[in-house]
Amino acid sequence: MAATGYEKQGAAYYVTTPIYYVNDAPHLGHAYTTVAGDVLTRWHRQRGEKVWYLTGTDEHGQKIMRTAETHGVTPQEWCDKLVSEAWKPLWEHLDIANDDFIRTTEKRHTDRVKEFVQDLYDKGEIYKGGYEGPYCVGCEEYKLPGDLIDGEGEYAGQKLCPIHKKPVELLKEENYFFKLSEYGPKLLELYESNPGFIQPESARNEVVNFVKQGLQDLSISRSTFDWGVKVPWDEKHVIYVWIDALLNYATAVGYNENPEKFASTFPANVHLVGKDILRFHAIIWPAMLMANGLPVPGRVAANGWLMVGGEKMSKSNLTGIKPQDLTSHFGVDAYRWYFLRAISFGQDGSFSWEDFSVRYTSELANDYGNLASRVAAMVGKYFGGSLPEATAAGEAERAVQEGLAKAVAEADRKIGDEIDFQGGILAVFDFVKQVNGYLTEQEPWKVAKDTSPEGQARLATILYTAAEALRGVAVLLNPVMPRTSQALWDSLGAEAALGALAEQRVQDAGTWGLLPAGATVTKGAVLFPRLEEKKDQ
Ligand code: MSP
């Protein structure tokens, strides 16, 4: 944003996911980005910030049109069915708390897209020209000949898209072009003045090098099919699906419609995107905005790919695993946690059922779940479920207090600022390990046998310390695992004592002693049941 000197008014922390193609049902890869955005926005809400989280669907273009044709329905019918039967239900199932869901076939979007493009045309940013080149329908993108790979086997002798591994089509069209080539220097200036604009570093370097080689003007209309938004001054053309799609980030927050909403929300603080669509977001999108005098986003954060058998996970190589197959076995919370925990955001990662099972059992069930149930059980057994006061705190307790403060600061920096989910989650789970170690050393079950006032004071102090530590853990894990965090919150009697979990501020989570003595601690349901038991159910 430094490049335009723009400051948002009233400032909502605005995060977006890509809008997904609805040619098929969502898979693990789509859910990965959407869960990441949900965790990031829940985190910022818990900082007490005003937040806007947007997701949606990309419904125009040749890819959708062909899929609908194959199924013998109109593209609109196809999209309506997929959105209502597959996409929205999955986000609900995964507890995605998006503030809006935009569909590019909605009038609130299409009308504004026309206005935006008309504006560019009026400003002389668009001209008519011809283009011939290899096009990948999977990517909905013209490819540079140098980017293509040679086909083998059934595709021998043909040139393939490096992402979809399918033959490209040679297209020749008279189109409208956006003068993208003129924006190279301004874009480089943007990357220079805002080094965090593209994340991670490797993605930034790739984009900078690409732009340095010189940009070509961009074809922004198509005339060989009509499933799209019509070009307002020449209705034989529809607007290129990527221009249409990128504009969702503006149309969904009131561009040309609700100035107040737009001023307080736009531009996005973070566009979360898969690395496959980084160039659209880090090059074309800011150039479009510059051309129309609008502010550019704060950051484009690219996630790596979930891989299967060494390939980007996609509809065709999913090996049949749906998000629901995993949630029915591991639970929704564990699902949300696993991919962010196991894969460093920005890097590629392979999914394996075995790895998920091992981490679930050791980190969620044993380290975390057991700690929660042991502490609740001991407060029940030794103090009738009423949280005792810590009157005999010493060195060991101070170390736990410091551990919590450190976990809060680190998780807040990593998740909230750096979008490093793995680092943030690890900080919390290191603290969980520390608390487990503390209990192992303090042996409250042995101290309980000492019925002297000193012995009972020690016991009370140990259990208070462990419960208060868990209070902090529940707050920190709430954005990642809202269901089990709420269960823990309830089990600690924290709702009655401190109010709703979502209202707890991250900034306060490390303040020691918030959970009051006398809170009613109950042993709730096991947070992470053993997997074998779940299978038998
Ligand atoms: N419709 C465009 C995006 C337009 S945004 C203005 C599109 N859609 S898509 O359905 O193909 O979804 C792309 C996004 O889904 C990726 O950018 C990524 O965020 C997510 N993923 C899809 N497959 C993925 C993996 N295998 N791994 C990780 N993320 C993946 O492109």
From TrEMBL:
Positions with a binding annotation for Zn(2+): 136, 139, 161, 164
Entry-linked SUPFAM superfamilies = Anticodon-binding domain of a subclass of class I aminoacyl-tRNA synthetases (SSF47323), Nucleotidylyl transferase (SSF52374)
Keyword Amino-acid biosynthesis in the entry? The reply is: no
Q: Name one GO biological process term.
A: methionyl-tRNA aminoacylation
Name the cofactor(s) required for activity, per the record: Zn(2+)
Domain Methionyl-tRNA synthetase anticodon-binding intervals: 387-535
Motif span ('HIGH' region)?
20-30
Q: How is the cofactor bound?
A: Binds 1 zinc ion per subunit.
Pfam families, A to Z:
Anticodon_3 (PF19303), tRNA-synt_1g (PF09334)
Q: Which GO terms of the molecular function aspect are on file?
A: ATP binding; metal ion binding; methionine-tRNA ligase activity
| Subunit composition and interactions | Monomer.
Classification via PANTHER family: METHIONINE--TRNA LIGASE, MITOCHONDRIAL (PTHR43326:SF1), METHIONYL-TRNA SYNTHETASE (PTHR43326)
* HAMAP family the UniProt entry points to: Met_tRNA_synth_type2 (MF_01228)
Name of this chain's protein: Methionine--tRNA ligase
Q: What organism does this protein naturally occur in?
A: Streptomyces clavuligerus
